[in-house]
Amino acid sequence: MFSFTAPFPLLLPVRQIFKTTTENDPAAATRHEMGKLRGLVEPGMRVAITAGSRGIRDLPVVLSAVGEWLREAGAKPFVVPAMGSHGGATGRGQIELLAHLGITETQIGMPILATMDTVVIGQCDNGPAVHLDANAATADAILLVNRVKPHTDFPGPVESGLAKICAIGLGKQRGAEAIHAYGAEMLARWVPEVARRVMNTVNVLGGLAILENAFDRTARVTFVRCQDIGGAGEARLLEEARSLMGSLPFDELDVLVVDELGKDKSGSGLDTNVIGRRMVRGVEEFEHPRIRNITVHSISQASGGNALGIGLADFVPFRVLEQIDLRPMYVNAITGGNSGTQRVQLPIAFATDRDVVAAAILTCGRADLTTVRLVRIHDTLDLSHLLVSESLRGSVENTPGLQIEGDSLPMSFDKYGNLLGVVGQPTA
After folding, report:
1. What is the pTM (predicted TM-score) of this model?
2. What are the pLDDT digits (tens) for 344-354?
3. Which class is domain 26-244?
């Protein structure tokens, strides 16, 4: 159909070294923090525990430890998928999504009760109705479990974390739609307010916050009291999480090549905090990084065809279009209101990876294409290994925390035009 020629750059294998901390025993840390619930859990109490749709490395371990502690306290714990409309907005789909993340009844030792039904437990003043997962509503208590991190849709003192999984996750599709109907720019207001309404209406024990470092490993597990969820306590955790995040070490790039997009990598498929693009009407864009063109070359298996975030890219191969299941992607987009519409618009597509990267180089706006500033990554969750164009060698050598791990090699493709090599593995 098309065939483009561009000066593909030589690529340097670069390792980004992050100074960070790691919790070596997340299960023990979880049990320690659960000890703060002594006196609040009674024998026979049915406790609903939240499990979201994100790829949190140690979430199965944390959930298992939570369940063990609660059973030892005489409680009857169970897990509810708290993920808005993800999983195609079906109970079965949400169970399957959890299974992709390593969360099954066998793995965590607890029942998983999935439904899209909700009960309305309140109404915010001049705002959304407050929905609660029907299974969680029957429990004697709820324990919120989630990772705290910067959100991909909006800036605020409280973004993605315990308040969000309470307000939007436990709200299921109806609750998520009700909140998103006010626009992404209002999420910073309604997420904590809806969460407070839930906590003031039903028995929420508190939350376990998971903080991850730049290597996608648990840095800390900490218990958060209800009065701090959606408030100053969670805001402090957000700033800590922000300081632990990985990022691209360059403020300006001409082309970013992303091997894989996925809901298990970020709620937006591509982490907007990494690529510097929100693409949400009414919400301001990031100041940096500034990236001219972005290419995406596959959808992760765990996404189940939900390619939300594909609209953040500029070019894709036909293969990516074939991997998309429009139903779960569009359900997720419509549930997300104006934060989802642009992110499911399809990029320009060509037959091969070679044509895609060539088109991105040719349209990046650089007069001398032999000096193109290009970086290739596997996904926006793994930023410790990069393939970096020779034009950025000087920046790499002058940036603390960046280490060249070998000789530069040509960007190579097989006879079908598919990208060769895996970021982070030897290319020779």
Report:
1. 0.78
2. 999 999 999 99
3. alpha beta
